């Protein structure tokens, strides 16, 4: 059973041409010219070697009635009081006439693969979710009952264990990072319950986000993947697992050549924790930052050559990032030696990093690169809720009055009247947005009355005149935009405003 995404996401040469004429010597090509590897004559040898390590998974679930009990047959029909049928049906049901319906069971089929000869099997969590019984069917049709060792819903990975009196044929993990778009891949699984099936294709794309979870980083392939392939392996030509087939894009439910697989570099770390941890749970790394995307305008205002990395909007108090010296406004360019190409990549890199590991982090700060060493913490699912419940210190700041109009914004210092008008905290500081002109760049970026501007051009501001000065400095230096740090109801984000559209 492959998870199907919504549909909106969801040759022969002429015989007269000789083989010699179709080949071009590499020596005749210009330096640096890419040469495609020829397609293999057959995948048969590789498939024969790998098929015994791929299993079919059958699950059964007992359906419950609305009252939480197993389905137990029809109730006595209801009749108006005094009806001549009422006593007839009551006697019929009371004397054994009630049909003794068997509990109804729902079944589903999926795939998996053996990663340990002792009987450990990897599959998708959605294949075995809510199952009362799990049966693993080996390549030789041996049926084995399986138990769930552990599962991780955020990455849709589950680890099963079967009891066996002989070592099982296991496969090993490959390096998904080393796989390139265009490489040949094999997918093996149990489509539509037909049994072990092999399909071939290429790696079509990498780092796909299909909005299925917080750590989406899927490999895309055109190898035929259908319902029932979920949990099955995707192999490279070395016979190593580089992905777990998980979802398809399909208006009809069948393969149209767009399938998605969890990359092995993410999966193997999750499986290792499920198998090795005493509690069989996944402990993810935590950096302690809130991030946002780097747009072209933000990149220009920060002096970056292009939009890349993850912009830190705020840093958690006493978190790993704060302890290492990272600040709001830093752009994370690399983490543990791996490039952070965009905002979505950083959470995945941090999550799969072992807790307690010290890693190098490169950031862009004040128009130059800076390096820090961060000790990764452990992600606590309650961190966010606990932070929202923390009381802010009760202190007041000096009112900084004065009104300035710039870039479509009417700005004022913090005053008691404005704090009351916009329901701001007693310790609110910065510059208050009093009004936003319609059709202005500020309105287009979502700024609205009551927002607090905390920084301009990465420097703290306390009154509107300081923002005006920063805007003048940016214009004189030839910048096209200015970066503002905006707070709204406790949430921080950076906004880049164009300077030539005010």
Quickly count the domains. 3
Which descriptor suits the 3D outline?
A: elongated
CATH architecture of the largest domain: Beta Barrel
Number of helices: 12
CATH fold-level topology of the largest domain: Thrombin, subunit H
Regions with pLDDT < 50 over 5+ consecutive residues? 7-29, 382-401
DSSP E strands, number: 28
Measured as a percent range, the helix fraction is: 10-25%
Tell me the Rg in angstroms: 30 Å
Mean pLDDT: 80
Outline the structure in words.
The protein is elongated. The strands form 5 sheets. Strands 22, 23, 24, 25, 26, 27 and 28 form a 7-stranded antiparallel beta sheet that branches. It has a 6-stranded antiparallel barrel with strand order 8-9-10-13-12-11. Strand 22 (403-406) and strand 23 (409-413) form a beta hairpin. It folds into 3 domains: 1-6 and 44-67 and 103-281, Beta Barrel (Thrombin, subunit H), CATH 2.40.10; 285-389, PDZ domain (Pdz3 Domain), CATH 2.30.42; 403-498, Pdz3 Domain, CATH 2.30.42.10. By secondary structure, it is an alpha+beta fold. The longest helix is centred in the N-terminal third of the chain and has 14 residues, at 84-97. Helices cover 18% and strands 33% of the residues. It starts with a strand and ends with a strand.
